[in-house]
Design goal:
CATH architecture of the largest domain: Orthogonal Bundle
Strand content: 5-15%
CATH class of the largest domain: Mainly Alpha
Number of domains: 3
Structural class: mainly alpha
Oligomer: single chain
Number of helices: 15
Distance between the termini: 72 Å
Helix content: 40-55%
Order of helices and strands: EEEEEHHHHHHHHHEEEHHHHHH
Number of strands: 8
């Protein structure tokens, strides 16, 4: 790729300078990025020609200094030509290192990512949110795991991040990490922010995301209607394991807590508030955003049911929660036994809390957003859209009945 290259000799004013000669510096500029090198020579300002970058006069000492500057210019030109011939990536810093005979220290991807997160974290509560910082931390962790999986390395020079790297990373997120399309695209956007920093600083000169076409897709959020929820709650199971999974699922329907957050719940997360009600006070593991949920009577009853369960009594946990895979396997059985038509997964419980339990019963969307631990109310508004679609379907059905 063609670069715009220039060299300038100039006098640099030292700190606290008053009178006397100034040091002569050589400035290298490539594509608007600059670096400088001291020449080891000095000149009185009155004897310097800024436009020419030379010392004025005809004395031998003047000729000697100007010849020395010409030699430096010739050497930097030779170094530049050699890098072009070798096909090297040419930046002001890399040319400076070549000229000085030094090996340029490569900018490392994970080091840059960690530095970004550290700076971002210092502005949490001022310009940045805790939830966004959490997403960057997760994205960093994914990037580290990908490097280990793909290259068996803990870090890599950022110049080695090319289009193939981007497509491989996207594939790894979808296959090895089992991310859905939207999750994969969001992690890639976080990673793209780091690449943009590298581009802006001149650490890379090609954008590896240029042909990346990842786009989020509109997600249809599924929830249980009240009749389905009642059938599950009122069903008598002959199997203790199915009853246990049903209860944990119902607790999520009544609180909006995700699977992992219920699994991590301890008695210390319960608190009696000023209103006399019992609340759950915790942070979502996914985003580390605080979640505050005043408990409904049904949720309190479920907590009391497992108070003396061996696993809960010995550990302080609120519920004996198996692995996510087992929970979802058992939910398939529960759906079949309760004649639930749609596929039943644990996350449907969280959607059900947002729509059927709260929004449908006139709980303000701002309150629902806090209880769900959403970083932005925009996320909660997606549930309101689901509720509006349901209302539209219900009214269509009513029109059909009245019309007939």
């Amino acid at each position: 790729m063609k670069t715009i290259f220039s060299v300038l000799f100039y006098l640099k004013r030292p700190k606290g300078y008053q009178t006397g000669p100034m040091p002569i510096y050589m400035r290298i500029t490539i594509d608007s990025k600059r670096t400088e090198i001291t020449t080891g020579r000095e000149c009185e300002p009155s004897q310097w020609i800024p436009s020419a970058g030379r010392m004025k006069g005809t004395k031998e000492t003047v000729k000697s200094l100007n010849n020395y500057l010409d030699t430096l210019r010739a050497k930097i030109d030779d170094a530049h030509s050699a890098m072009i011939k070798a096909g090297d990536d040419i930046t002001a810093e890399s040319l400076k290192c070549r000229f000085l005979g030094k090996e340029e220290s490569p900018k490392m991807l994970i080091e840059i990512f960690k530095n970004h997160n550290q700076k971002f974290g210092k502005l949490v509560g001022k310009e940045n949110s805790k939830g966004t910082l959490s997403r960057y931390k997760i994205s960093l962790s994914h990037t580290q795991r990908f490097l280990k999986w793909r290259f068996n390395l803990s870090d890599i020079p950022v110049k080695k991040v090319d289009h193939q790297f981007i497509t491989d990373y996207d594939f790894w997120l979808r296959s090895e990490r089992n991310c859905g399309n939207n999750s994969a695209v969001k992690y890639m956007r976080n990673f793209k922010k780091i690449i943009t920093i590298c581009l802006d600083n001149g650490w890379i000169d090609r954008n590896p995301f240029l042909k990346y076409k990842g786009k989020t897709k509109r997600v249809h959020r599924v929830c249980l209607e009240q009749d389905d929820l009642n059938r599950i709650a009122e069903k008598n199971f002959s199997s203790a394991r199915l009853e246990q999974i049903r209860d944990i699922f119902l607790f999520s329907c009544y609180t909006g807590l995700a699977y992992i957050d219920i699994k991590n719940l301890h008695r210390e997360h319960l608190t009696n508030r000023y209103d006399g009600e019992i609340w759950i006070m915790t942070n979502r593991q996914k985003t580390d955003i605080p979640t505050r949920v005043p408990l409904l009577p049904q949720a309190i009853e479920l907590i009391r049911k497992y108070e003396y369960h061996p696993k809960c009594a010995n550990t302080g946990l609120l519920f004996p929660v198996p692995s996510n895979q087992k929970v979802n396997d058992y939910l398939k059985e529960i759906a079949e036994l309760c004649k639930i038509k749609q596929p039943l997964t644990f996350h449907i419980a969280r959607h059900t809390f947002a729509t059927t339990i709260t929004l449908a019963n006139d709980v303000p969307i701002e309150s629902v957003s806090v209880m769900l631990g959403h970083a932005s109310i925009k996320t909660t508004q997606e549930y309101a859209k689901v509720l509006n679609l349901k209302l539209s379907r219900d009214m269509s059905a009513l029109r059909s009945k009245i019309g007939s």
